[in-house]
C-alpha cells in the first residue's frame, strides 16, 4: 500500500540550504513530498522554493507567512494542512542538514512497518551522537532531556529532538489549538502530549551534525521557555487529564492548498 508522506520544513533565512535540501528529499525513494513554511525570509528563501516548484509541481508545496511567528506555530500550520490534505505520515525536519534526509526513510519504516505512532530521530538513544557542537551546547541539550524525564516522567532520551515522523492519527488526536509553546518547549510538549494520550513512541538513533551554512535560531528566551514550560506541562497533566481530540478536524482554522 502506498502511503502519502509529507515532510514539513519551517524556514527563516535558509537560502544557503533550502535548494540543496529540496533536491535531496526529492531524490529519495518513496515519493516524499515537501511543505516549506517560510516566515517572510528577507534573504529570498521563499523565492528559491517557488523557482523549484515547476520541477516538482505535485510534490513541493509552499506556505508563506507574514513575519517571523515561531517554530511551533509553523509546525501547527503544517500539521493542519497535512491533515486536511490527507497525508498518512507527517515529518518534522530542519532545513540546515543537521538532520540527514536519508534518515527520513528509517523514521518512516519504524512507523509504517513496525507499527509505531511517533518515531523520533534521537541523538542520545545510543550514547551522544552529535557532530560539531560545542561541548557546552551538547551538555545543555543532553541534560535538558534528563531534566524533562525527571520532572514529567516522559520516557524519551531526546526530548527536544526536532526530527520526527507522526502517523496522522497522532496529530488528529491532539487538539493542536491547545499546544501552547513555540520554541524548543514545543518539541517537548508534542512528545509529552502524544505519550499522555497513549500513542506508541520509538526513538531511532541518528547522527546529528551542526549546520555549516546559515545561522542558528537558538536564543536564551527559547531555552527559558523550555525550562519553565516543562513544569507547567507537569502541573497541567495533574489537574487536567489529557484526552483524545473528539472533534478531529472540526472547527480547525485550516490553510487552503498551498501555491
From TrEMBL:
GO terms for molecular function: dolichyl-phosphate beta-D-mannosyltransferase activity. Gene3D superfamilies: Spore Coat Polysaccharide Biosynthesis Protein SpsA, Chain A (3.90.550.10). GO terms for cellular component: membrane. GO terms for biological process: glycolipid biosynthetic process. It holds the Pfam family Glycos_transf_2. Keywords: Glycosyltransferase, Transferase. Residues 7-171 form the Glycosyltransferase 2-like domain. It comes from the Bacteria. PANTHER family: DOLICHOL-PHOSPHATE MANNOSYLTRANSFERASE SUBUNIT 1. Belongs to the glycosyltransferase 2 family. This is Dolichol-phosphate mannosyltransferase. It comes from Algoriphagus ornithinivorans. The lineage of its organism: Bacteria, Pseudomonadati, Bacteroidota, Cytophagia, Cytophagales.
Amino acid at each position: 500500500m502506498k502511503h502519502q508522506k509529507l515532510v514539513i520544513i519551517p524556514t527563516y533565512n535558509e537560502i544557503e540550504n533550502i535548494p540543496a535540501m529540496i533536491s535531496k528529499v526529492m531524490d529519495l525513494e518513496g515519493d516524499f513530498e515537501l511543505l516549506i513554511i517560510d516566515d517572510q525570509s528577507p534573504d529570498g528563501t521563499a523565492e528559491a522554493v517557488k523557482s523549484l516548484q515547476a520541477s516538482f509541481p505535485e510534490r513541493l508545496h509552499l506556505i508563506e507567512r507574514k513575519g517571523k511567528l515561531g517554530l511551533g506555530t509553523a509546525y501547527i500550520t503544517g500539521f493542519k494542512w497535512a491533515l486536511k490534505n490527507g497525508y498518512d505520515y507527517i515529518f518534522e525536519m530542519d532545513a540546515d542538514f543537521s538532520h540527514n534526509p536519508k534518515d527520513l526513510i528509517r523514521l518512516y519504516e519504524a512507523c509504517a512497518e513496525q507499527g509505531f505512532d511517533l518515531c523520533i530521530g534521537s541523538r542520545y538513544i545510543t550514547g551522544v551522537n552529535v557532530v560539531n557542537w560545542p561541548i557546552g551546547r551538547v551538555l545543555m541539550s543532553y541534560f535538558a532531556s534528563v531534566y524533562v524525564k525527571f520532572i514529567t516522567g516522559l520516557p524519551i532520551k531526546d526530548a527536544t529532538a526536532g526530527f520526527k515522523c507522526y502517523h496522522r492519527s497522532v496529530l488528529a488526536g491532539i487538539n493542536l489549538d491547545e499546544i501552547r509553546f513555540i520554541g524548543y518547549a514545543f518539541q517537548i510538549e508534542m512528545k509529552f502530549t502524544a505519550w499522555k494520550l497513549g500513542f506508541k513512541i520509538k526513538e531511532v538513533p541518528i547522527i546529528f551534525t551542526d549546520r555549516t551554512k546559515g545561522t542558528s535560531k537558538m536564543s536564551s528566551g527559547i531555552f527559558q521557555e523550555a525550562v519553565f514550560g516543562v513544569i507547567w506541562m507537569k502541573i497541567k497533566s495533574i489537574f487536567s487529564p489529557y484526552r483524545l481530540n473528539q472533534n478531529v478536524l472540526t472547527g480547525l482554522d485550516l490553510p487552503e492548498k498551498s501555491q
